[in-house]
Structures are given as C-alpha cells and as structure tokens.
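Appendix B. One record, verbatim.
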Amino acid sequence: MQTPDPLPPDPPAPSRAASGPRAAPRAPVGLWAWGETLAWVSGLVLSISAFTDWYAGARQDGLVLSVIGWHTGALGKLVFFVGLAALGLVLLREAGIELPAMVPESLVLIALGSLATIFVLIRLISIPDTFFGTAGRGIGIFISLFAALAMIAAGLLRAAEEL
C-alpha cells in the first residue's frame, strides 16, 4: 500500500495593503456629530432634573415651599428612570454592545424622549392636589422638559448619522 502524497500548501492570502486602499467609514461632521453627545447629555440632565424643584410657591405665613420632581409621584420617578435608560443605552454602545438591527438606537432614543416629554407635560399641566398650595412651577420642570425634547433631537440626529 502506497502512502498518499501530502497536499500542496495553500497559496498565501492577499494582504489588505496589496488589495489597495480601503475606504474608511465616514465619521459624522458638523451638526450631525452631535447626536451621541446630545444623547448622553440629555439623559444625564433628565436624570438629575428629577431632583430639582418642579413646584415652588410661598405660603401666606411667609414660608417658601419647593417640591422636587421625585416627590411628585410615579411620573417624577419615571422621568428619572427614563434618563437612566438613555444613559444605559449610550454606555452599552460605548462598551461595544449594540442593539439588534431591527431596533435601531435612534428609534429607542426617540421613544424614550417622547415618553419623558409626555410625563413632564402631564406634570406641567396637572399639579398634584397635594402640592396645590405651591401652584408655581419651578425651573426644574422646565429643565426636564428641555432635556426630554433634547433626547428626541438626539434620536433624530442619530437617525441622520445612520443614513
């Protein structure tokens, strides 16, 4: 019985340098590069704004009251957790974990921003009965509204980056 001849060695694979220059992925420039930065900034501001004054007012005896968003009920707490979810989404992307292709990150940011906007608008329009004596709105609720709208804008900018 004769032993088989060894297989000839495989030809070397062509190197990337030999195949010509490879096109680098385009990095977003100008206004479109703000999507990622605006996403984490708006998530951080939205989370922090739940601990700022949403309602403020003075009583007749001279006592000045201020109510933070966390103490306004479930909606104030949900605004905080929506901001944390946006921060978590950005941190996951930075860690190299991406969402499935069927769920683009821009869509998730737009949905979180819309949800936060609805929650803040409900609290802006409807003051809880417990805090009716402090009928004035504080600066914190407007900061929350601005951050929620900025999160929607971040999602739209990220969608433009993905195109």
